[in-house]
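note to self: dont lose this again. the chain is below, predicted strucutre after it. 68 aa total, dont forget to put it in the shared folder this time
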Amino acid sequence: MNKGISIALLIVGIILIIYGVSAANSIGSEVSRFFTGSPTDKAIWLLIGGVIAAVVGFFGLVRGPHRD
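---
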């Protein structure tokens, strides 16, 4: 994987995690948590997408260039 793409995925993942945490702490999410016991779907998907993007970006950086 290209190093630039890995860095971009890592940054996007971190940003999505930040937005997901913010959405999970919002008033709408608190209301949803009160009635259903879990935050809103938007918050959950932001967190899942952020973690996946950050992990893929991190492993792309750690693994380095692949030479055959």
